[in-house]
Amino acid sequence: MALKRVFERREMKYLLSMADYLALRRLMGSHMQEDEYGRTAIMSLYFDTPDYQMIQSSMAGGDYKEKFRLRSYGTPGPEQPIFLELKKKIDRVVYKRRISIPYRTIHQVIASGQIRVMDRPLTANEAQIQREIQWVFDRYQLEPKVLIVYDRIALFRADDAEFRVTFDFDVRYRTDDMTMADGSFGQPITADFDVIMEVKSMGAYPIWFSDIVNKLHLVRGRFSKYGYIYERYISQGETNNVTEPV
């Protein structure tokens, strides 16, 4: 599938038991197919102010939320692209803008606080995204706070690029070693659900999908991995040893 740098969509979340997940996949049948990567470890390194201003503001509610993270699909090698992602939520619509850099350049970016793509010329769109991310870095004085890892299965429809469904398993985190290249290990979270389903769409659900959601009595909820981990673990002082990622 083509690489996207700009996203605008709604993201609806459902917290599922394993029984719900298996029933859902069975009923979905051939409506959707897994992407080419299969089950993939997603690694997201979240940045925040020294006093966690961004996540606290997000958890307080309101119509505007903002996050910045680095994202890797799998444990990265030196030349693997890592995505710098600026994610905003305005009136329940998610806007995500991202650019990629080789993993080997991440330490320099974090140490300098300068967002630069140095290995290739930028398109006009990429240059604009780079400026936006730099503005956020300068405004908030961002620093790495927590590395969150989970295993994801992503589904799509070939005839509807705007409708996607993802399933996230085994959410884990670490704050004492945030080096992505060290692997996808982490402290598992303790939760009363097994799977996080995200439905990504700008419009209404397809009728067949709405029928499945209603049949299984699935209820849409609010959930943030970073917010959950901050509230349950970081803010409680259980993980205070933070080291700089490389």
Walk me through the structure:
By secondary structure, the chain is of the alpha+beta class. It is built from 6 helices and 10 strands. Helices cover 25% and strands 37% of the residues. The longest helix has 17 residues. An 8-stranded antiparallel β-barrel has the order 1-6-5-4-3-7-8-10, surrounded by 4 helices.
Question: Layout of SSEs?
Answer:
Elements: E1 6-16, H1 18-28, E2 33-34, E3 40-48, H2 53-59, E4 64-73, E5 81-90, E6 93-102, H3 106-112, H4 124-140, E7 143-157, E8 160-174, E9 187-188, E10 195-201, H5 207-215, H6 225-234
Antiparallel strand pairs: 1-6, 1-10, 2-7, 3-4, 3-7, 4-5, 5-6, 7-8, 8-9, 8-10
Multimeric state? single chain
Low-confidence stretches: 238-243
Largest sheet: 8 strands, antiparallel, barrel
**Class inferred from helices and paired strands:** alpha+beta
Q: Which band does the percent of strand residues land in? A: 35-45%
Q: What is the string of helix and strand elements?
A: EHEEHEEEHHEEEEHH
Radius of gyration: 18 Å
Strand order of the largest sheet: 1-6-5-4-3-7-8-10
The share of residues in helices is 10-25%
- C-alpha end-to-end distance: 29 Å
How many alpha or pi helices?
6
The shape, in one word, is globular
Give me the count of strands: 10
Report the mean per-residue pLDDT as an integer. Answer: 89
Descriptive terms for the model:
246 residues; alpha+beta; eight-stranded antiparallel beta barrel; 6 helices; 10 strands; 25% helix
Summarize this entry quickly.
It contains 6 helices and 10 strands, in the order βαββαβββααββββαα. The chain has 246 residues and is α+β, with helices and mostly antiparallel strands.
